[in-house]
Design goal:
Distance between the termini: 76 Å
Bound molecules: alpha-D-galactopyranose
Length: about 400
C-alpha cells in the first residue's frame, strides 16, 4: 500500500510541475518543413539531407533559418513495446542518422505527429503513446515537434495537447511544441501555456486567394483571419498562420513577396515550404531579405495589425523595439496603385515625432515623415517601410 501512496503523490507533484519549456522560440521560429511542396509521396531522407545542405549554401542559415522539419509520412507502425517504427522505404538510414546529419550542419531537427489515433495521412498517431513517443524524440535529439489534430474524435484539445506537452517536459529535452489544431478550439485562448506556436486556420495552399473544399486556403484568406489575434502573441507564444508558400508554383513572384512580407509583419513563424535546392534567384532574394527578417524577428515580439482597410488596399503596422515602426501597404488589386501617404493621418498607433523612411524591398531611404510620400504599389504586391527614429544617413 505504502509505495502506491508514495507514487500517487509523486505523480500529483510531477503533474503540478509540468510546464512547457520556457525560453524557447523567443522570436518566431524559422526553418523549412517538407509538407507544402513534397507532401507524402516525395518525402525521403536524401531529399531532407539535400534541403539541409541548401539551407546552408543559400545563406538562409546565416540569416536565422534553423529548423529542418519532417512532416507527415515518416512513420509506419509500432513494435511490440509500442515504439514508433520508421518508414524504411523513405528513411532507410533511420531517423537518428538524419538528425545527426542535420545537427552536423549546425541546424536543428523537427518532426511531426498527431494527437489522435492516426495522422492526417493515416500513419500512426500518438494517442496513448505520448510518453514513449516523447522519449523517442528526445533520444533522437529532436528540437521541434509539430502535433496535428486528425482522427481525434471525442478528444478534448486542451487535455490532448497538455498531455503531450507534459510528456515532452518529462522526457527532458527542450523541444519547441507546435500545436496544429487549425484554430478550431479557439486555440489562441489557451495554447500560450501549452505550446510555443499554434495554427490559427486550416491549411494554406499556394494560391493568392480562394478556399478549396473549405479547408485549403489561399494566403490572403488566411491573412484576414489573423485580424484581432495580435493580442495573443508574445515571445515564446506565436500565432501560426501556417507555413510559407513562397516560391511554390501557384504564386507569382510579386504574390510571393507580398505573402512573405505579411508573414513578417504578423510575427508569424517563417517555416518555408518550397524546394530550397532549386530556388530561382528571385525567390531566394525574397526569403533572404535581411531587413524584412529583422522585422519578423524583432525582439519586442509584437504581432502586426491592420490600421486601414479600403477593400483592396490595406495598411498594416508592426511596432518594433526602440520605437521604430514597420508599415506595409498591401495592394490586393490586380492593378497597380498610387497612393500619397500623409504620415500623421494614416492612423499609425504610437506615431510621434519625425521618422526617417526606409523602403525595405528597394533598400532605399525615402526622406522623413514630415512630408507626404508618394508610393506606387504594383498589382498584388506590397511596399514595405521601416520608420526609423535614429538617422541612418
Ligand atoms: C494537416 C496539417 C498540415 C500537414 C498535413 C499532413 O492537414 O494541417 O500542415 O501537416 O496535415 O498530413
Amino acid at each position: 500500500m505504502k509505495p502506491l501512496i508514495i507514487s500517487f503523490f509523486l505523480l500529483i507533484s510531477l503533474g503540478g510541475l509540468a510546464q512547457k519549456f520556457e525560453n524557447l522560440a523567443l522570436t518566431p521560429p524559422m526553418g523549412w518543413n517538407s509538407w507544402n511542396y513534397f507532401e507524402c509521396d516525395n518525402l525521403n531522407e536524401e531529399m531532407i539531407r539535400e534541403m539541409a545542405d541548401a539551407m546552408v549554401s543559400s545563406g538562409m542559415k546565416d540569416l536565422g533559418y534553423e529548423y529542418i522539419i519532417i512532416d507527415d509520412c515518416w512513420q509506419t507502425g509500432r513494435d511490440s513495446t509500442g515504439k514508433i517504427l520508421v518508414d524504411k522505404d523513405k528513411f532507410p538510414s533511420g531517423i537518428q542518422h538524419l538528425s545527426d546529419y542535420i545537427h552536423s550542419k549546425g541546424l536543428k531537427f523537427g518532426i511531426y505527429s498527431d494527437a489522435g489515433t492516426k495522422t492526417c495521412a493515416g500513419r500512426p498517431g500518438s494517442k496513448g503513446f505520448e510518453t514513449i513517443d516523447a522519449q523517442t524524440y528526445a533520444d533522437w535529439s529532436v528540437d521541434y515537434l509539430k502535433y496535428d489534430w486528425c482522427h481525434t474524435e471525442g478528444q478534448d484539445a486542451i487535455a490532448s495537447y497538455t498531455r503531450m506537452r507534459d510528456a515532452l517536459y518529462a522526457a527532458g529535452r527542450p523541444i519547441v511544441f507546435s500545436i496544429c489544431d487549425w484554430g478550431v478550439s479557439k486555440t489562441w485562448e489557451w495554447a500560450g501555456d501549452v505550446g510555443h506556436l499554434w495554427r490559427t486556420t486550416y491549411d494554406i495552399t499556394d494560391r493568392w486567394d480562394g478556399n478549396i473544399w473549405g479547408n485549403q486556403l489561399g494566403w490572403t484568406e488566411i491573412l484576414e483571419k489573423q485580424v484581432g489575434l495580435e493580442k495573443y502573441a508574445a515571445p515564446g507564444r506565436w500565432n501560426d498562420p501556417d507555413m510559407l508558400e513562397v516560391g511554390n508554383p501557384g504564386l507569382s513572384i510579386n504574390e510571393s513577396r507580398a505573402h512573405f512580407t505579411m508573414w513578417c509583419v504578423l510575427a508569424a513563424p517563417l517555416i518555408t515550404g518550397n524546394d530550397l535546392r532549386n530556388m530561382p534567384q528571385e525567390v531566394q532574394n525574397i526569403l533572404t531579405n535581411k531587413a524584412l527578417i529583422a522585422v519578423n524577428q524583432d525582439p519586442l515580439g509584437k504581432q502586426g495589425f491592420k490600421i486601414r482597410d479600403e477593400g483592396n488596399f490595406e495598411v498594416w503596422q508592426k511596432p518594433l523595439q526602440g520605437g521604430d515602426i514597420a508599415i506595409v501597404f498591401l495592394n490586393l488589386e490586380n492593378l497597380p496603385k498610387t497612393f500619397t501617404v500623409n504620415w500623421n493621418r494614416l492612423g499609425i498607433k504610437g506615431f510621434s515625432g519625425k521618422y526617417q523612411i526606409k523602403d525595405l524591398w528597394k533598400s532605399q531611404l525615402r526622406g522623413y515623415t514630415d512630408k507626404p510620400l508618394k508610393i506606387n504599389v504594383p498589382a498584388r504586391d506590397v511596399v514595405a517601410i521601416r520608420l526609423m527614429l535614429s538617422n541612418q544617413e
